[in-house]
Amino acid sequence: GQDKTLLIQLTRYGVGQYLIVTRDVTQVEKLETTRKDFVANVSHELRTPLTVLSGFLETLADMPPGSLSDEQKQRYHGLMMEQAQRMQAIVADLLTLSTLESSPTAEGGLVQMGQVVRTALQQGRVLSGDQHVFVENIDDGLCVEGVETELASAVSNLLTNAIRYTPRDGTITVSWYATEDGHACYSVQDTGIGIASQDIPRLTERFYRVDRGRSRATGGTGLGLAITKHVAMRHHAELQIQSRFGAGSIFSLVFPPSRTSRAT
Ligand code: ADP
């Protein structure tokens, strides 16, 4: 099967007597590799916008004063701003992830998810520029226990992705409902580009993107689903992903009955 790394310790504890201890450190090594990969990825992700930004700055520094028209200045400014915002988004998402990781469960209060979903939808329509068809199906009385800010970020991450990865005129259906067996479910269904089955298990890895170029172009940091997965775990919920390449996807957050209630 798989390669294992064994640590072997030989201790002498008497004349002619030895004790051999073997320890399987495969897991320890794996963690260390994950950590190293992560640091390498963060550096790479930040270096790209930084390189572009310093490139612009150098070009500007080399220009004789007064050689740029107001229009050109504005264009340069816009392009540099974009790179700075990109770095800000990455750093903000990394901070969110590390905060989420530092405590296991989310203690909060009763969250009116219907309201949270409606707010996300309003922002989603603006982001989409009304280029998509939105269908909503919201059970307003259905609540879950949790931290509202965290839930709001999970809700809007899934919606933002649906908008990003669905061509204009596509349909995005947002639902918040109780299932027959008492679970509460938030789901976002899109008629977008879809995901090949071999990519699905890797989507919640940090910085994993199926199409790097497309994700960057639409402002993605590659951390949204990693954050969403963490928020789900902290709320004892499950993040479910169903997708068909070229046809569309359904991303759902399913909350257990024990964390679900109904406002009266
Ligand atoms: P990003 O910031 O790149 O969107 P995410 O962690 O939110 O990062 O998502 C990871 C990847 O999963 C995306 O880059 C994209 O390839 C894929 N993905 C996420 N949501 C969808 C969707 N609704 N349709 C198709 N692909 C998606």
From TrEMBL:
One GO cellular component term noted in the UniProt record for this chain: plasma membrane
Top-level taxonomic group: Bacteria
One GO molecular-function entry: phosphorelay sensor kinase activity
Localization per Swiss-Prot or TrEMBL: Cell membrane
GO-annotated biological processes: cellular response to phosphate starvation; phosphate ion transport
Entry annotated with the keyword Nucleotide-binding: yes
Limits of the Histidine kinase domain: 41-259
Record keywords: ATP-binding, Cell membrane, Kinase, Membrane, Nucleotide-binding, Phosphate transport, Phosphoprotein, Transferase, Transmembrane, Transmembrane helix, Transport, Two-component regulatory system
This enzyme's EC code(s): 2.7.13.3
Catalytic activity: ATP + protein L-histidine = ADP + protein N-phospho-L-histidine
The keyword Kinase is annotated on this UniProt entry: yes
Its job: Member of the two-component regulatory system PhoR/PhoB involved in the phosphate regulon genes expression. PhoR may function as a membrane-associated protein kinase that phosphorylates PhoB in response to environmental signals.
Name of the protein in question: Phosphate regulon sensor protein PhoR
Natural source organism: Allopusillimonas soli
Residues of the full protein shown: 168 to 431 of 431
